[in-house]
Amino acid sequence: MPPAPADPNENELREALITTALETNRRSLNQGTSGNVSVRLGDGMLITPSGVPYEALRPEDLVFVDADGRWEASRRPSSEWHFHRAILQERPELAAVIHVHSVYASVVAIQGRDIPALHYMVAAAGGNSIRCAPYATFGTEELSRHALEALRGRTACLLANHGMIAAGANLERALWLAEEVELLARQYVLSLQIGGPRLLDDAEMERVLEKFRDYGPRERS
Questions:
Q1: Confidence (pLDDT) at 218
Q2: Residue-wise over 43-81: b if at least 16 C-beta within 10 A, else e?
Q3: Mean pLDDT throughout 137-161?
Q4: Per residue, what are the HEC states of the chain?
Q5: Check whether domain 8-214 has CATH 3.40.50.2300, yes or no
Q6: pLDDT tens string 165-204
Q7: What gap in Å lies between CA 128 and CA 154, rounded to an integer?
Q8: CA distance 10 to 18
Q9: Catalytic status, residue 80
Q10: What is residue 214's predicted lDDT score, i.e. its pLDDT?
Q11: CA-based diameter of the chain, in Å?
Q12: What sign results for the dihedral spanned by CA atoms 75, 78, 79, 82?
């Protein structure tokens, strides 16, 4: 039997997910087939498939993974579906997850460093630093556990020797945050070349975090 037709909201989500994936390439956050994007749908998620360039994606190529980690599709979901599902299940306030191997975030992650409070925009990720999760092999439950811990109280993290995760209440917010984290990583790398950053103290970051409660793009009505 042919699959049941998707409802209009699902069709819109599929189109928006592809648009977001393409934007990660356009904004130089990603290249080739190295990243992945997901969005909440019902009790599961839609996620980009494994090994398909974003430019070739069609709405029907996106894979629905249910709450139990099962899927029925001709394509397999991204190898990183474990941490996408874990984040969306653990964090009900989030609805979209973007993972990229952007250059500067990956450079910092290769060093196993957190991004410290070198700029007030660090607060965009929800804390006074952007943590780097310990290394684990891609696509594993171990990496998923490390990512969840690094994201505790945060909406972005680095993955050691790997890349970056950014999440948000919608695809637009997650994409905005991914771009901000990459810029912060670039600023951090460049500042290290001229003696290292002068960091903002915890009291100032608390003030900034309060201001950031409603900062950033909002979902269009």
A1: 59
A2: ebbbbbbbebebeebebeebbbbeeeeebeeebebbebb
A3: 98
A4: CCCCCCCHHHHHHHHHHHHHHHHHHHCCCCCCCCCEEEEEECCEEEECECCCCHHHCCHHHCEEECCCCCECCCCCECCCHHHHHHHHHHCCCCCEEEEECCHHHHHHHHCCCCECCCCHHHHHHCCCCECEECCCCCCCHHHHHHHHHHCCCCCEEEECCCEEEEEECCHHHHHHHHHHHHHHHHHHHHHHCCCCCCCCCHHHHHHHHHHHHHCCCCCCC
A5: no
A6: 999 999 999 999 999 999 999 999 999 999 999 999 999 9
A7: 9
A8: 12
A9: yes
A10: 72
A11: 65
A12: negative
- Model confidence over 34-87: pLDDT tens digits? 899 999 999 999 999 998 999 999 999 999 999 999 998 678 999 999 999 999
Indicate the Cα dihedral angle 163, 49, 166, 85, nearest 10°.
-110
Write down the residue that tokens 């998707």 correspond to.
6
Structural domain spans, the chain:
8-214
Given 10, 12, 55, 80, the catalytic residue: 80
> How far lies 203's CA from each of 151, 197, 214, in Å?
21, 17, 19
